């Protein structure tokens, strides 16, 4: 997810070195623009977060929650499930065509 255009609230908090609650406050104050993806997931543009970090207008905090491996895996499968399903279907079709 490092090259993704949109990042989660947790990734934003890690980039800005602040808590997730502080990120939500920045969104409410209008300092960050948040986007809903599939009307379910709140995401922010990586470029906007990096711009805010580079301005130095955000005071760093020491409390952070790590983005766990299982969350990375969950996000990967959630956002790529169509491609994984399509690839699997293509492999099954190739097997049927060439080996039966």
Structure in words:
This protein has 100 residues and is mainly alpha-helical. Helices cover 59% and strands 11% of the residues. It is built from four helices and three strands. A hairpin with a 3-residue loop joins strand 2 and strand 3 (41-45). Helix 1 packs across helix 2. The longest helix is centred in the last third of the chain and has 31 residues, at 69-99. It starts with 5 loop residues before the first strand and ends with a helix.
Cα-atom radius of gyration:
18 Å
CATH first level of the largest domain = Mainly Alpha
Q: In CATH terms, what is the fold-level topology of the largest domain?
A: Multidrug-efflux Transporter Regulator, Chain: A, Domain 2
Question: What count of domains describes the coordinates?
Answer: 2
Give the number of DSSP strands. Answer: 3
Helicity range: 55-70%
Widest sheet: strand ordering:
1-3-2
Note the gap between the termini: 39 Å
What is the level-2 CATH architecture name of the largest domain?
A: Orthogonal Bundle
Instruction: Summarize the biggest pleated sheet.
Output: 3 strands, antiparallel
The sequence of SSEs as H and E is EHHEEHH
Q: Would you tell me the structural class of the helices and strands?
A: mainly alpha
Strand content: 5-15%
Overall body shape? elongated
Total helical elements: 4
Low-confidence stretches: none
What value does the average pLDDT take? 85
């Amino acid at each position: 997810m490092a090259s993704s255009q949109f990042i989660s609230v947790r990734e934003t908090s890690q980039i800005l070195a602040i808590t997730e609650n502080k990120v939500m406050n920045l969104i409410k104050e209008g300092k960050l623009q948040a986007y809903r993806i599939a009307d379910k997931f709140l995401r922010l543009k990586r470029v906007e977060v990096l711009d805010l970090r580079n301005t130095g207008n955000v005071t760093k905090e020491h409390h952070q929650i790590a983005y766990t491996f299982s969350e990375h895996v969950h996000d990967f499968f959630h956002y790529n499930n169509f491609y994984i399903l399509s690839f699997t279907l293509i492999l099954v079709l190739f097997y049927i065509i060439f080996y039966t």
